[in-house]
Structures are given as C-alpha cells and as structure tokens.
Batch of 2 targets.
Target 1
Amino acid sequence: MDNGSQQESSDLHVHHLPIASVIGVEDRTEEADDAAVDYHDDSSEGQDEVSNKRMKRHTDDQIKHLESVFERCTYLGGNQRVELAKKLGMEERQVKFWFQNRRTRKKMHDERQEGMWLQEENDVLHAENKVLKEAMWANICFTCGSPVVPAIPTVQHQYLSFQNMRLADELQHATAVFNMVAQDADVGLATSVPFD
C-alpha cells in the first residue's frame, strides 16, 4: 500500500471544511489545562534514544488557537494539519497528536458526564421503586396515600366464581369416570387375549 492510499484511508473521517475557516477562527477558549503537553516519538528524525520520547509544552496562544479549531472541527485532514502547524509554528505531528489527545479527553469527559447522569437516574428509580414496594406491602393507594379497601365482590364476579367451581367439579367427575372405563377396558383385554 503506498503512502497516497494510506493518507486517503486515514482521512476518511475528516470533515472537509475550508482550511481558512478552520484555522482562522477567533480565540474563544479558556480551557488550557493539561492540553499543553504533547507526547510523541521523534525516532524517525534520527535523534538519540534519550530524546525519542519527550514532552513539548505548547504556548497558551497555541493552545487557545488549537482549542478554537477543535470546537469547529474535531478531525483535521493532512493539508489542514500542515497549514495549521505552519500558522502556529509547530510540527504537523504535534498538531496531529494534540488533536488525538484532545479527542480522547473529550470522549472521557463525555463518558464521565453520561455515567454521572445515569447514576443520578438510577438513584431516582431506586427511590421510586422503594416507595412503591413500601406502599404495596402496607396496602396504601399509590395515588392518594389512603389505605386500600378490598373491593366488594360484584354479582357477576360471584356468578363467575360459582361457574368456575361447578366446571372444576364436572372435570374432576369426568376424569374419574374416564379412568374407571380405561381400567375396565385394560382388565377386559387382559382376560380375553390368549397367551401363547
């Protein structure tokens, strides 16, 4: 695979915005905490092992500008990274790694926020569940909080209960008759079949 096709495949998720609109935005970001640190490997540049991994601090202005670009576009293409790096006096790799780190921090922040929201929602649901269980065991109306009075059986309910008992008795009687007939048939078959 040549470098051109690698570049195309790595830029599949890039939002293609005009470069000037991405890097020429106003500085509006106040967040510049640990975004100033950039870790990267310079081994391809042929430097000593000691300086292979080093920490480079970015200036406050660079960070503010990177943050403002990140607000508008979280993924930069190769050309956009190169132009932004030139404008800020940075290496293209520094811009690339800064954006990777910033996306990771944003994802972690969003997941933490979602986790806190889900925990709060879970706590509310547990509290509601506890109240409902207590009301159910105490026979209290969920709506008004007054004691639940058992319903007086209606005439139709009494009639259906009576029909249910009558049908259960009929089923029991029919099952007993069937079992007797089946036993008699088995006994009759056993006496009429000759043994060889």
Target 2
Amino acid sequence: MTEAEETRMVRKMDIKIFPILVCLYMLSFLDRVNIGNARLYHFEADLGLKGNEYQLCVSMLFITYVTFELPTNLILKMVQPKRFIPIVSIGWGIVSLCTGFCQNKTQIIAMRLLLGIFEAGYFPAICFYLTFFYRRRELAVRIFYLFAASAVSGSCGGLLAFAIGHMDGIRGMSAWRWLMILEGIPTIVLGVLSYFLLANDPYDAKYLTDREKSFTSIRRTLDGTTFGMEGEKQKIDWQQCREAWKDWKVWSLATAQIGVTVMLYGYSTFLPTIINALGYSGIHTQLMTIPCYATGALVYLAIAKLSDRTGYRGYFAVGGCATACIGYAILLGTPSYGPGAQFAGCVIVAAGLYVAVGIPISWMPNNLPSHFKRAAGQGTSMTLGNCAGIFSSFIYRTQDKPEYRLGHGLTLAFVFCSGCMFLMTSLLLRRENKKRDRGERDYVLVGKTPEEIARLGDYHPEYRYLY
C-alpha cells in the first residue's frame, strides 16, 4: 500500500471513529463537571447543602469512578466495544437527566455515585479502543481530539449554562435542574446511535476494504503496537496483568498522573467558582470560562502534532507541567493586582493543563504493546490518577475564596512533582533504548522458544520505547 493510500485509509478511520467518540466524550466531561456550573444557580440552596457538603457531593463520583475503572478496562476485549460504549453512555445520560429531579443531599449523592459507575469505563475504553486502529505515532493527535472535546465541552458548557440560566423558574424549576436535564438527553440519543456507528476492530469495520483491513494489522505490527499480542485469547491474561503491575514504567506514569489529575478536576470543576470570586456575575462567569478552555485546546493541538511528528512524549509533558505551574504561581502571587492578572493566570494554567494530562495518556499505551498488559497498565494509571478527583474536590474550600491560596498552592506542588516524574521516566526510557542499541539486552532471547519470544512484548531487545 502506498503512502497516499495509507493516508486515505487513516483519514477514513478518523471520519468513521471520531465524530461519535468525541461527541460522547464531550458529553461525558460535561455531565461530570456541570455540577460546577450548577452551583451558580441555587444548587446548594435548593438541596439544603451547608458548609463543605457541596464538595462532598462532588467527590462522591470519584469513589465509584476509580473503583470500576480498572475492571472495565480489562473486560473490554471480552465485551464488544460496540456494545460496551452504548451501555455506559446511555447509563450516564439517564443518571444525568435524573439528577435534575433530585430534592436533597442523599439523592444527589446517589446520582453522583451512579454517574461514576457508568462513566468509569468510557475514557479508558476509548483510549484502549484506538490502539486497535492506529500506530504509536498517530495516537497523541487522536488523544488530542478527545481532550479538545473536554476543552470545547468546558467552553460550550459555560455558553450552554449561560443560555440555560435564563430558564430559571420555567415550570417552577431552577436553572440548574434544566442544565442537568438538557445535558443528559443528547447523551442518551448518541449512546443509541453509537451501537450502529462503531466497529469492534478493523476487521469488523465495514468501511474498510479487505486489503485495508489486512494492512492495519501489518502496519501496527511493524510499528511495534502489537509486539507480543500474537495468539492472545479473549479471556483475561492474568500473567500480562501481573507484568504490568510489576513494571516500573506503569507506576512511574501512574504516580505522575495523580498530580496532573488533581489539576484537571480542580480546574474544571471549580473554574466557574474561581472566576465568580473575581467579581463577575453568575451568568457572565459562564462566558469568561470560554477563553480559558479555547486556549487549552489550541495549545494542545499544536503540541500533540509536534509530539507525534518527533516521537517525544515526556519532554512535552514536562513543558505542560511547567506552564501550568507558572499559571498557578501567578494566581498565588497576584490577588492584590485585580481580576485581570488572576484571569491571566487561569488562561496560562489552561495552556499547560491539557498538554500535561493528555500527552501521558498516549504515552502509556505507546510503550505497552501486549494487549492485557496495556489494559492493566492504562487502567491502573487512570484509576490512581482519578483518585485525585476525591482530593481535588476539597482543596477549593468555600472559606478560602476569593484567593483560594490553599487550592492553588497544593495544585502547584502536585503538578511540579508530576513534571519531575515525567522527566525522570523519559530519561530512563531513553537510557534503556541506548542499552538495547548497544546489544546489552540481547541476552533476554537466550534459551527461549519462539512462542516465549513472541510474548516478550516491550521486553524484546528489538523493541524501542517512546520517551
């Protein structure tokens, strides 16, 4: 297949795969963080929330989210993606819609717990799903499409919340109730459509010719995406899972993921509250979130393309962390300079946020070619990372506004530590590649059968890590 034919094939996959996945991820993110917009429309008063009970409600989602994230990632190959994705998306759409009818704290907590169960599997599943179709150096831009969706979701969420804010009082319901209901309905509709639009893998894709289906497998094998996947069974391979849980790369990136996820959820959930504390009205606060998310999306697009072109991951993740740290330093150091300086800090944080969170998500599967090792590693990383969502719910306390020094300071510290972990991981992987170039890992092949060699995965001396 020529380069032009391959380009057309990849474009064809993009057109068939991404519209539905991106729209669902946008709604997933929106349904997860719209509680931040709801807070500006009598949410706490209507439900009788006092003190830090709002933060408690926010954090409930992450309890079930982190509990179910790894198991759902492991069963994806056992449950067809075209069934799994519709089930979870319809589920969280129904939960989001029902949230609009909650009357007290107990009911809202129950809805948040259910939302976590259904949303837990979606993002890990689609990141894993993409590895069935794309090469390693094609993933960063594709992950960008998803994170751009969250940035667009933040922008559209603010704009939508601004519009729905004018529905306050219609049929005797507060605007936040309409917000939950009207954001849940499209999710249900798209979830149903996804069953008919998605293929399980390239061989199930009706839009690919037989020649293209064969070539997707060949090019991913040559690229190293499927190293060690020969003859894998549909049932869970616990040996590969154990290999993932013993692999230092998994724990290094998973630990770093905690810090940047503190930033992601803290920023996304509390940005409206932070901007509102700068003196903007509730409705205009929604509009002021748009420049932040738009900046994050544009910067991430440029970096994702550069990352795929160069093959570097860690260096760009470090740069994203450094940029976000500068933004938080501005937020901490300029409360007396007025809302302009504080808002600039919010924009700079957004410029680094999506790079720091998104690039490592494509980095982990890039270096774990074996199917269930990749599933276990990615699931572990996201599970640990999303544990940070529980913590991030409580660091922006009501009594700390308008400066939120505790929240900004703790987030800066977490992101700085994550940047150091990304740098260390990148340097160690680079050193390992050089050792393999010098033949220092060839001893791994000695005495092994062809079947054992085929299952070495990323431990094979010919495999090269992306760093």
